[in-house]
Amino acid sequence: MLAEQGRGLRRSIGDAGYALRILFHSAARLIPDLPLRWRFVRDQFVVCAIAPLPVVGVVGLFTGMILALQLGLELATYGQAEQLSNVIAPTLFREMGPFMTGMILTASVGSAMAAEIATMAVSEEIDGLECLSIDTVSFLALPRILALTLWAPVLTFVGCVLGVVGGGIVSLTQLSVPLTVYYRNVRESLQADPGFGGFPEEIYTGLLKAVVFGIIISTVSCAVGMRTRGGALGVGRAVRADVVRCFLLIIVTGYYLTWFFFK
Is the four-CA dihedral 49, 53, 59, 60 of positive or negative sign? Predict the structure, then answer.
């Protein structure tokens, strides 16, 4: 039993080291290889931004509506329904927005990356690229990591804005709070804690979280895909492992980032 646990720990450490090697190698090749890979980066922009945008929008809208309904009903019992927006906006921008977008990107984009690269690995396409002296990390991982890192904060911001809009709809229709009062409180709550350069702290910390989540999802997905073996069964295992690892890393990393920014 101890030997099996040791082998599992050794595999986990090896997988983590391989993922970090891919991340650092992609960062090192970013400037010299970006002109060569720009066409592939543009293709990944569509995969990482356009495809998940409707899902992020719908989930963000209804997340704001659910939060507003649950919190608003409780605040209304104390006659404080107008204070709803003071809770909704910071919660969405600081925590719920990045977390929600990270989960969506893991399920929709990260799993697709892992499946695509894993299929190339089991069909020996990656071995063929290496035989042609092509840098597989620069060719496969760099465009995906760059695209998801750039678009994750944009999608997070869109989801948070739509969540605030959803909260405004519920506050008007269910709690009889005028939209002018709601959006005034939203603006005041975000401006209460100015951060770097006077920019609201809740917004830029949430966007930084989204950047970190984008790096995690894309790097882990590429690393899992490139180490896949075992045919079609291995592809399925790779996708499952990728989703589980990304979910766990997002939750754990999100906690420590919150602790770092708001301790």
Answer: positive
